[in-house]
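User: Could you write out the 3D structure of this protein bound to 1-[(3S)-1-benzylpiperidin-3-yl]ethanone? I've included everything you need below.
Assistant: Certainly. Input first, then the structure.
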Amino acid sequence: MPAKSNNAPHLFQPLTIKSITLRNRIGVSPMCQYSSEDGLANDWHLVHLGARAAGGAGLVIAEATAVSPEGRITPGCAGLWADRHVEPLIRINRFVRQQGAVPGIQIGHAGRKASAARPWDGGAHLEAEAGGWPTLAPSALAFGAELPMVPHAMSIADILRVQNDFVSATQRALLAGYEWLELHSAHGYLSHEFLSPLSNQRTDSYGGAFENRIRFLLETTEAVRRVWPDRLPLAVRISCTDWAPGGWDLEQSVELARRLKNAGVDLLDCSSGALIPGVKIPAGPGFQVGFSEHIRRETGLATAAVGLITDPAQADQIVRLGQADVVLLARELLRDPHWPVRAARALGQSTADMAPRQYSRAW
Ligand code: 531
């Protein structure tokens, strides 16, 4: 494909994956709000996600949502471990769709990084008396000094239970009206902990060789794909590198992407890092885009680029050059929910299908 031809897709070209069409290539990256009680969504989530849907994003992905109570990062994290979580999400997703965006959700399990205080309460591991709980991980290795709790090394029964939790959460996500599902296998949470030799020192079939370390994610993906309808996109977020010697890296990510593609994954969301503390990350504008570009080129799998994407021309170029199919913005969309409309104007594109008519006098 001639990546630089004038017909190349750009930021405001729709994207169809399976039966779902995004009105543009701009997605709201999943961002923890730490604002749930007992995992339930509330008015904060309606306003946070709704505002960004009204702001013109094509895809709005709800925050990392725990598949089990012990899989929450903090006591304020969202959850889908019980049927009662579904109803408030239905309302939010209806609103997101009414604004022309596709509602998505990221589901995950925080592994050894679970049971922490909310960031504004310091983010440290919680003692039991402060509402903390025992954590689970592939191996009994703590994250580090700032999250020192040693997790319980998962038994095979634990692994099967968590995989079943992913399946049940997927079924609830469907009932809640989500049209895009992302499995969280990045940022040092449970599934990433299985992938990386730095956190996975198991000697059974879930540790050691590459084939074994990817087993948890591949089996989970296959099980989820069986209940998540074929017509709906399934994405996986990975950390493409641990930025650490002896850790997970881009070469393994490429091979994993091939396996995930065969397992029915439609898009790989390419992030990096957060498995271990104290790592030097060369963060700068679009610093993870190269991972997305490489994996997309090597595997033919659709990708999303994320990380310090803030500028309309930069975002447009990522899509135009074939470095990613979708750009996911996080903090920039916190600063300005209307960034997509602003970007369209900056790039001389129509805002017709983006700016809400209630706000039309503003543009
Ligand atoms: C930290 C983070 C952001 C981007 C790259 C690496 C790490 N985030 C990760 C979030 C939780 C809040 C902190 C999740 O992935 C759930």
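Residues 15-353 form a domain with the TIM Barrel fold (CATH 3.20.20.70).
User: Perfect, thank you.
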